[in-house]
Amino acid sequence: MKSAKVLVALFLYGCYMVRECLQHDNPEPVKTALLQTWAEKLYFELWNCGEYITNRKSLQSKYNKEAKLEGRNGHILVANISSVIKSMMDKKQQSLKRILESVEQVAVSAHNDAPPGDEYKVRNAKPNKATPHTNILLNDLKENSHFYHTPVNATYSSVHIPTYVYDRASDVIKALKWSENLDVAFRKNYEIDPRLSWQYFGSTTGFMRQFPAMEWPDKPDNTEDLYDCRMRPWYVEAAASPKDILILVDNSGSMMGQSKIIARHVINTLLDTLSVNDYVNVLVFSNVTNEVVPCFKNLLVQATLANIRELKLGVENIADPNNISDFSIALTMAFETLEMYRERNMGAMCNQAIMLVTDGVPENFYELFKSHNWKNGTMGMPVRVFTYLIGREVPEIRDMKWMACANHGYFVHLSTVEEVREQVVHYLPVMARPLVLHQSHHPVIWTPLYADVTDPKMTDYLWEKEECQQQYHDTISYKETKDQFFYPKNKAKRDRDRKKKELNQNLNVNRQKKHNLITSLAMPAFDKKTEMTKVAHLLGVVGTDVPEADLREAMSPHILGVNNYAFIVTNNGFIVTHPDLRPVFGDILKPNYNSIDVTEVELVDSDNIARVFDRSILTLRDYIINQTTGDREITVKYHYDDMRRATTAERHYYYSIVEGTPFTVVVALQEKHFGYRVKIPDRFQNLNTTRSSLLDYFKDDEWRIHPDWLYCRYAYDDGDDTSFKTPEDELRHFLKRIAKTDNTWNKWPPPRFYSESYDSKGSTLPEEKFDGKCYCDKDLMLSLIYDANMTKGIFTEAKNDTEKKKKTEFEKRFGVTLAFVATHSGLTRWMDYEDKPKTPLNSDDHENQQPHFIDENVYSIEEVWYRRAVEYNMVNDESYVYSVPFENENIKSTLVTASQAVFVTSKENKKKGAAAVVGYQFRHSALQELFLNITKQCYSETGCTPAKDTCQSIERDCYILDNNGYIIASENVMDTGLFFGNVRGPIMKMMVKEKIYNNITIFDYQGVCFKRENEDDSNSSSFLYTPIHHLKQLIGWLIGRVLWLAAHSNFQWMMSQAQAIFEDVPDYQEDEESVYSADTLANFKIEGEKALKYVRINRTRPKSCDRVVNLYTLTSKIPEKVEHKSMCARPYELRKIMNTNLILLVVNGRCPETTKAENFDTEPKEVDYEEFNNSLNCHKAFYSLPRRRPKTACIRTHPDEHEIYDKMCGKGTITTVTPITLSIVFFLCLIL
């Protein structure tokens, strides 16, 4: 009997298994009619909620009633922008000329003055606490918004003196005294041009006089001040014409110890004095000669920050000195390389020089110089030679000095590290001698974009400091949580957090700007005193800044409109300003932040691999760098929303030269869709009928304006009456003025300045003072006032009782928290449906609070939801665009954002222009509930079986996806915000294959990747050592000695003490203990020294890299269902949810292909350049793009130079060093 029961059970089980197999082979298809019904019901709920909450139709009607459209003409736009920028730059040049004239006149007048006595005091921007009697306190400093909210005094200047420059040296103190007279020119310039930024004079003696006076910012981490004006781009470019530099460093057996350290410091300092218009390489020689970076073989590379960094890494990795040096081979190789670049018109195409760094030469190599450098006589030698003799005990300096003097160079004898930085820069005045001797020509130079006072060499140091903080955090976390630190859940969370942080740092998600990015213009100042002996003394360089923000402001982004933009490119093809320029990584400057090429931000829609640029963009680049005027159309692809979304578009590029500068302005328009802008009606043009109502449009506080746009501004921020806490306070102030008078519309720059042009030979400059107290952008202000009138009360307009009831019903059903509207003029209004206060930015608990919508969404047309709504209008002009935060772990508080564009449509030609975007936010939990409730329903007309066909069935998996493949809703709420390919890779892959989603490959050419410190460097370059690195080595040595002693004493006692550190905190209890069995938990227990190993983070170094990411976008027309041999060949069905950017997707869970663990993610990955040992810099050096040499004249020789070199071509120095200087030099040695 018992055996019969067993047989029956086996039979039934077999039948069940057969049934299951048959069902897997022939699964039930998804009911398309049921799917359609679900999609329609979701549409109905979402659509009606949006219409009732946003009141979109009313706003649309208002705009269409009287607003008109105006076409955007690219040729006119680019011409206007370049004209405004030219006018701005002309003003800066005029100011610069006044300072220059003052410097040269005052220097001549003070030539015979005796140096001031000990009683002389200076206004030191960083007063020396050790010698307070030498400094005048900087009093009455007031915060000024025009100077980045820095406290300043605009009645006098202050000076910055490098720490290693002795401020009481006779030549320094004398120049400090006579340069005080520059304050008159500084003040006059500021009166004439209130938009003038910092003005300064950098002296060859090392100090910089800056106006207005300010206190030098303290270093937050107590690092030493490394700033030296002679190392800044504006100084080194103005001090001499562009140059090709070959540095030869001796690595023979005698260059050991201190000599090697000094030599390395000399090379790094030389590299710091180069700019992007210079070309350089470093060769190391003994019995053979090689490049310190092997892939730079036979090359001169452009002196970008990235290449300079690569060369410094190569210098750091030079092998130990050995053998006897063959100077002939090294010098011959250097001369031949420079000759090749001259003959082929490559490199800087102007000055050339060899820098020889050694501890001695066997002879003077007369014959070598004669055959390579004196072919046309000593008067026409193409290459200068500078010699740096290293060491105290040197046998002979005569040959080294002769080599420099005979080749129009300079000789320096360096016996200590502390004198290197000051003595190396002496080569710059030598290179400038031809310029000085010509006297009349003062070339104006323009720098590329750079951070004002930030030293790029600090990147590695700051990154290592950040890693130390991370290590501290992890150690404390382990100490508090003990074994649970290693739980998979906790480890996975740490990994996610780090990946998210890295992504945000790469994309610079935080809009707070720590670095002030600028371009500078500068001119060299010459000593014009008449002497019996030729001197050709460079006094220094005068300069002023142009903030990048001012250039963006001049481009009138409100006129260009949403998804259109303008940018500026230099003669090198590098970007000065661009909406996709991302110069920082977190708060740290990227290694190549200011040498981003136009081809690296304008990505052509092609299938080319990384750095194989399409011919269309290369042609456009050639036109731009050669400063022509014209236009071209290119189909491009671009990313947005933190590089999580991408699309393609046809852009029309218009370009025009900014005369007198190396810059070209480019305007990029999507004319097909965004070629028209809203023009306000005539009744708002003069405000005659609306002037009294201006303040009524802005009565409440629930509005913001674009913080970076110029609406109205006072010319000078000189007190409480002209300083405002917020842009909104400033606007209210000017609205009151406009309501009273029509005299507020002073334009900037004033029209009379448009005709002014700079003449380098002229001596008379316009000196009219700006006579307007304030100025406004009238077009923008009137547009703002019009939009304020249109949107006032938009969310509270009277409705009939039925509509009010419906609105309240949807409000509650969807958990609506906020409605908003943003306009093309930069106005954003909102209305809260919940009492949710805005988070104060200085709140102690700011990081733990959910920010209010308006805290992060004040940039109107630049916001992602605005851009997406306008863009999706081209697909469906009735559609709302929905989104949720990516990978949001706090699901309970997740909000859904919905937005739709409001367009003005022309009745005559049906053209459209974006006027505004309306939207609202509601709780994701409400959408989740709606989704589950609808998709669990069966309808008789669809032939549905609840147990099989609804989303409650185990046979169906249901999702709502957006148009980029991100999950908006799912049966598993934890999927919210994830990319669908991460959850169901095989299904996403099928949808891409069937062209439901299109793949868009985006290359991020501004990426930052990380290299572990213990990895072998295949590029023969080690990492740039920082102070922390050297300190770490010292600590490591000490620990090694302690452990050696411990091994010979009481080792067990030491380990027990170390273990106690991790046992003095009670165990931190966590829910995860209930998830795992006792045996499994035991596997997570890692103790003692092994635990420390796992807690220790992998030390890395940031490096420039290219990254690639595959992003996806929904096809505008989803293909009809394709017939397949079996149901599982296409195990899903989908329907678009009407008037949204969403699709409803149902996956057949019976098909085994749907459960494969295949990843299909959107995470950026580093591009490998195997041809160059994965070195991006090597790849770029080998496949370098063409450039145009600056248009400034190349002045590299003068017939009178020989009179100078007979007497002034070098010296050795004996330096008296203070303890402070010694500490600074020690820090410099470590960081360099």
From TrEMBL:
Pfam (any one): VWA_N
Top-rank taxon: Eukaryota
Protein name: VWFA domain-containing protein
Alphabetical UniProt keywords: Calcium, Calcium channel, Calcium transport, Disulfide bond, Glycoprotein, Ion channel, Ion transport, Membrane, Metal-binding, Signal, Transmembrane, Transmembrane helix, Transport, Voltage-gated channel
Signal sequence annotation: 1-23
Any one GO cellular component localisation term in the record: voltage-gated calcium channel complex
Start and end residues of each VWFA domain: 244-428
Membrane topology annotation: Single-pass type I membrane protein
Gene Ontology molecular functions: metal ion binding; voltage-gated calcium channel activity
Localisation: Membrane
